[in-house]
Amino acid sequence: MPHYTFTSIADTFDFGKHKNESMSDVLEREPSYLYWCANNIPRFQISENALSEIKTLFPDFILSIDFLAAVHHETDDDENSDIDNNIDEHFERPTYEKYAGSWAQEVEGYSDDDIDTIFDGDPSAYWNID
Fold first, then answer.
1. DSSP 7-48
2. Sign of dihedral through CA atoms 75, 77, 92, 128?
3. At residue 71, does pLDDT exceed 70?
4. Comparing C-alpha atoms, which of 47, 49, 11, 17 is closest to residue 33?
5. Distance (Å, rounded) from C-alpha 33 to C-alpha 95?
């Protein structure tokens, strides 16, 4: 099974609808695509370096514990295995108050921050993720 590993946000996608586009370009235009990749592409990985670049250059992108867990897969030769040890450095604790009772939050499990970021504050738009 191929690995889809990004060591920098300058790396380009070699699959999907953003093929040949850099992660940086995708983060600018359609950041929800990274959430989709994390949840749907086996072995989709983002290195510690790329996560640091995202945190610095795209501070509004939510690096939730679920996202970090999805993009890091530990292997014997994984040069980025310190992600697990430093997860608090990237982790923003999700809240579940603002959209309590909505399908997106109660059933799908999206936090308030996820709904604000991914769905522009409209919890009913959860079904529209590509």
1. SSTT-B--SSTTTT-BHHHHHHH-THHHHHHHHHSTTEEE-H
2. negative
3. yes
4. 17
5. 22
